[in-house]
Amino acid sequence: MVARAQETLTSQQLEEDFDYLWQNVADDYAYFDQKETDWKRVKEIYRPRVALVKTRGDFVALLEAVLEELYDAHTHLNTNTAASPRLVPSGADIWAEWADGSAVVTEVRTNSAAERAGVAAGMRITAINGVPVDEAVRGRVGKSLRAADVAAKNWALRALLAGRRNEKRSVEVAAGGRRRTLAIDDEHSGPQDAPPVLLDYRRVDGRTGYIRVNNSLGNFEMVREFDAALAALRDTEGLILDLRDTPSGGNTTVARALMGRFVGRDAPYQKHSIPSEERLYGAKRSWLELVSPRGEFTYTAPVVVLVNHWTGSMGEGLAIGMDGVKRATVVGTEMARLVGATSTVKLPHTGIGVTFPTEKLFHVNGTPRERFVPGVRVDLLGVESRGKADPILQIGLRTLRGLNRPARRAR
Q1: CA distances from 199 to 190, 243, 304, 312, 387 (A)
Q2: Is the separation of the CB atoms in 159 and 152 below 8 Å?
């Protein structure tokens, strides 16, 4: 029996909520074709465990384990407990992946607890919270997979490095021929999803404008502030649009409003498709979404968009959109690779919300959004980035200066 507010839920009601989640994902999840997950096996493994649930926290933990079988960072519950995993990328500060049998740090979030602890790109992770990294990852990968999948291993690695809300983190790293353990202090990190300002803007050298979006693509007030920033930078000969702090995504209204300041006519910026309709009816449904001009002037000078692994969801959509309408050169690392556009269902008895991708998203050229590679790709492990305080920004400025287009100002 599970208490929720003033009511008590029965095992039957919890089973009905479990079945409701499982069936909605079975019907509408857009990316089963890219997974090794046996979704029927997931039900066989986890549904019997509903009978063991004693508290609401137990049920949340069970559902979290169910969703982790999809190894999809864009799939999550809209509630959590003290023991819930931090979301990736919004709650993560270390990006790592497997390469030649090693877990390698490829990027660390700027001004994060991990950066302050000394974690840096190029380090090899050898243990997480005292557990050898291979063992830790094997324990986190789902139990329903039909075959090994490196994507599942990479997902598990990043989830483990992000940690849980109530746990202290430490990583053992190897670099420069020695190993050391780094304790990561999350207590003084501050909220990463509540920036003090929606955006920052300035002039870099008198001629170049710079606008940084502070994880605010879901805030409609962002549109007014962006318009004010662009008006202040109207006479610049080029613009840097920095999307490296957009891990929480946003919505298409805000993104289209921003893109609308850079186009002179309607233009397609993103392609959608709904796989569930094709599975059900045998008829594919897809469409192009348009962006329309907006505002009192169109900014026509060259634009460079900066991205990294904390450019997520709608941040990724805005980046590929600016590329798709041919109004920007994208510079940076690969992005968060969050798949699809999400929908949320509410479980009937517990009221828990479950968010998961139901639409596939593509660049207008047909490239899946999650496979988009910046036009100017920055390898933070490479020679060109070493010794630079902010290599992505420096390469972005160099790229902007090198664009062989006459600098046309706003009209």
Answers
A1: 18, 10, 17, 16, 27
A2: no
d(CA 51, CA 82): 22
CATH topology assigned to domain 94-184: Pdz3 Domain (2.30.42)
Q: Which CATH number fits domain 199-402: 3.30.470.20, 3.30.530.20, 3.90.226.10, 1.10.760.10?
A: 3.90.226.10
Query: Is residue 98 exposed (0-12), middle (13-18) or buried (19+ Cβ within 10 Å)?
Result: middle
pTM here?
A: 0.93
- Nearest alpha carbon to residue 285 among 4, 28, 5: 28
CA–CA separation, 401 vs 396, rounded Å? 9
Task: Give the CATH number of domain 2-77.
Answer: 3.30.750
116 token code pair: 């302050």
Between the alpha carbon of residue 366 and those of residues 234, 288, 324, 360, 372, the distances in Å are 33, 10, 10, 11, 10
Domain layout of the chain by residue ranges = 2-77, 94-184, 199-402
Q: How far apart are CA 97 and CA 40, in angstroms?
A: 29
Residues 325-344 pLDDT 10s:
999 999 999 999 999 999 99
- Nearest CA among 42, 37, 2, 49 for reference residue 23: 42
Span 184-223, pLDDT tens digits? 988 765 545 455 699 999 999 889 999 999 999 999 999 9
